[in-house]
Design a protein that fits this description.
Strand order of the largest sheet: 1-2-5
Shape: globular
Number of domains: 3
Radius of gyration: 23 Å
CATH class of the largest domain: Alpha Beta
Distance between the termini: 37 Å
Strand content: 15-25%
CATH architecture of the largest domain: 2-Layer Sandwich
Structural class: alpha+beta
Order of helices and strands: HHHEEHHHEEHEEEHHHHEH
Number of helices: 12
Largest sheet: 3 strands, antiparallel
Amino acid sequence: MISASLVKELREKTGAGMLDCKKALEATDGSMDAAIDWLREKGISKAAKKADRIAAEGLAAIKIDGNVAAIVEVNSETDFVAKNEEFTSMVDMILDAIIKNPVSTNEEVLALNTEEGTVEELIVAKTAKIGEKLSFRRFARVTKSDSENFGDYIHMGGKIAVLVVLNGADSEVAKDVAMHAAAMRPSYVKSSEVPEDVLEKEKNIMKEQLINEGKPADKLDKILVGKVNKYYEEVCLENQIFVKAENKETVAKFVENHHGSIEKMVRYEVGEGMEKREENFAEEVAKQMEGK
């Protein structure tokens, strides 16, 4: 009996699909090294060889169909491949699959069927064909009611993608809010969404700064209130000053003036928080010519 943990380990080492990994382990009596060779012999070698490469470029994309929208980040090793038609068509197929199916986890997305097999099989096949490690990083499937409007914005050809849902206000206002979010990088919609541990960490840092600045101890709490509000202005969409505003109104006020409210925001920036490759293209070509 092949354990799930062994299948998972082989998948992480090779980038191959769960089913292929299970078959490989069954065919090789659970030998990890033999299973890797088995996968290579079956034509998944390119994907396997590139499993340890860093894929921090790629594409953030959005698709909307009526009251359902999907936003994804799919990664590649280079920006060049992210613009390749093979890659962009793969991203489009993934978006279609998510739109049609109420999924909530990456594992569920990878198991969805496309016209070229499951999403996981599609990614492995494209990895082999394109010659770079490709990976599905994250997604959100967002639904709205008839009284709500989506706002979407793609910046720099897919480096940043923002999807928002507004209640009451029209799609033009929603688009403006999405554009603002792309530029100003909010992490949350409203202050109540900031996790307690994140806020406490920020407060502790602020307090230490105030002490180091020599502020009197009996004034710290009062000063801290102002600094926390300033923090909310930086990280919360509703609290930010709207980029198009001439009178310094907040995004929340801008939307309110158009008889609406912000219900949801999803903002993806490609490679955000991921390790980036430091080697340059010339060095990589040189390595390949040396047979490395």
